[in-house]
Recover the amino acids of this structure.
């Protein structure tokens, strides 16, 4: 299986080069989606060896979806550009997919930082059996990623619910967290996201995809 690492980035010049350099030995390509940065993020990412896709500022979900369109791998891995996630744990994240046990893997952080994320995670855990539904460190099969719409204003809860509605097997593995100096702002968008999560939890979907996740 070939592995594409997708890193959405906005003004991450302090950390992007190190993240790219640490990821490169553990995958077949690294794509940095420069989401309208006004600093040297794109230049430093390119110098570090990443393929850089530059776009006007549009937010996390459009950046991730842009990465999916341009990526060439069989398995997509997303991780943050600020150093919170450790690229050396990429093999840990992709192992359940490589072994045929899962279609989406969540990197479960030691602690979920925001109260709003913990609320959504607690709500979804009753339905999904996973704890950290807001993590940005994930792996998924190419076919699954390209079939997803990512409803809502962020990935919290809805992306996992959507994956399950498509018949995907979702598991999580524990990861460690690196240090980041980026401040944790209050995520008011999670109030809106909660309504999307509740809506998806109580509705059925008739969407499906043609891929055979089990690889049979």
């Amino acid at each position: 299986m070939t592995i594409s690492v997708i890193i959405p980035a906005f003004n991450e010049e302090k950390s992007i080069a190190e993240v790219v350099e640490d990821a490169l030995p553990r995958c077949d390509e690294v794509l940095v989606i420069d989401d309208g940065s006004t600093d040297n993020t794109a230049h430093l990412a390119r110098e570090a060896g990443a393929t850089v896709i530059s776009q006007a500022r549009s937010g996390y979900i459009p950046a991730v979806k842009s990465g999916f369109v341009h990526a060439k791998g069989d398995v997509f891995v997303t991780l943050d550009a600020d150093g919170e996630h450790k690229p050396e744990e990429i093999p840990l994240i992709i192992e359940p997919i490589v072994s045929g046990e899962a279609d989406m893997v969540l990197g479960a952080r030691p602690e979920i930082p925001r109260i709003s994320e913990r609320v959504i995670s607690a709500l979804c855990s009753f339905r999904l059996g996973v704890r950290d539904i807001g993590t940005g460190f994930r792996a998924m099969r190419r076919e699954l990623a390209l079939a997803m719409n990512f409803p809502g204003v962020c990935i919290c809860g809805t992306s996992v619910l959507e994956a399950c509605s498509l018949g995907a097997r979702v598991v999580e593995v524990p990861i460690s967290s690196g240090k980041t100096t980026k401040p944790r702002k209050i995520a008011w968008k999670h109030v809106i996201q909660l309504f999307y999560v509740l809506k998806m939890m109580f509705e059925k979907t008739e969407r499906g995809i043609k891929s055979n996740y089990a690889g049979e």
Remarks:
- Residues 3-201 form a domain with the Spore Coat Polysaccharide Biosynthesis Protein SpsA; Chain A fold (CATH 3.90.550.10).
- Residues 43 and 216 are 42 Å apart (CA to CA).
